[in-house]
Amino acid sequence: GPAHLFRLAGKCFSFVESTYKYEFCPFHNVTQHEQTFRWNAYSGILGIWHEWEIENNTFVGMWMREGDSCETKSRQTKVHLVCGKSNKLAYVSEPSTCVYSLTFETPLVCHPHSLLVYPTLTEALQRKWDEAEQLLYDELITDQGYKKIMKGIFEEAGLLKATEEKEVENKKISLEFETLEKCNKEYKQLSKEIKELQDLLSQHGIAYKGISGE
């Protein structure tokens, strides 16, 4: 990520709301401690540093995932980075069960270019990005195709964790195609498979009611 944010590593920032104390340690974790005298006061991890949240090719926040278990899933926290006069945890909420939202203010993100992804990449990945922009401009790829390439670049840079989708990608046929050529190729393949299945049904004397060309 942005090198100038690494100076936050090794530091922790706390925020107290009601009976809870939240602690955010950038590039490490987020914890919650119940400030009561109850014998079973909760103290635990709301997420461990995992990946960046990237929107419009800009860093907007940090995802802390794989926290303590909560019913059927793990607790996770999204930390929003906003411009502020000093480094401080400013706001905490729980928009949905066991998914937390923290707002972290810091002067390190006040510059308009401070959270751009492009400058943080290697030259090789910047070239890949440039090529993707050119392909999109020349209308040789769709918006969907462009987003897929960008996601791949961010994953290769280690900014995003590769999703499990990649493992099952070969086992399923995507319903969205990056180019018309790929769509046509897939259509021909499916048409061929349908024809073979129709022939198989005919051999066994099974009537097939279908609209040809559908």
Question: Explain this structure to me?
Answer:
This protein is an alpha+beta fold and about 210 residues long. It folds into two domains: about 110 residues, Mannose-6-phosphate receptor binding domain (Cation-dependent Mannose-6-phosphate Receptor, Chain A, Distorted Sandwich); about 45 residues, no CATH class. It is about 25% helix and about 30% strand. The protein has four helices and ten strands, in the order E-E-E-E-E-E-E-E-E-E-H-H-H-H. An eight-stranded mixed beta sheet has the order 1-2-3-4-5-8-10-9, with no helix packed on it. A two-stranded antiparallel ribbon has the order 6-7. Strand 3 and strand 4 form a beta hairpin. Helix 1 runs antiparallel to helix 2. The protein is flat and about 75 Å long. About 15% of the residues are buried. About 5% of the residues have low confidence.
Task: Give the low-confidence spans.
Answer: 165-173
Broad CATH class of the largest domain: Mainly Beta
Lateral arrangement of strands in the main beta sheet: 1-2-3-4-5-8-10-9
What overall form do the CA principal axes indicate?
flat
Q: At CATH's second level, what is the architecture of the largest domain?
A: Distorted Sandwich
Number of DSSP-assigned strands? 10
CATH H level, superfamily name of the largest domain: Mannose-6-phosphate receptor binding domain
Gap between N and C termini, in Å?
48 Å
The CATH topology of the largest domain is given as: Cation-dependent Mannose-6-phosphate Receptor, Chain A
Instruction: Work out the count of structural domains.
Output: 2
How many H/I helices? 4
Please give the share of residues in helix: 25-40%
Organism: Cepphus grylle (Black guillemot)
Keywords: Coiled coil, Disulfide bond, Glycoprotein, Golgi apparatus, Secreted, Signal, Transferase
Protein name: N-acetylglucosamine-1-phosphotransferase subunit gamma
Subcellular location: Golgi apparatus; Secreted
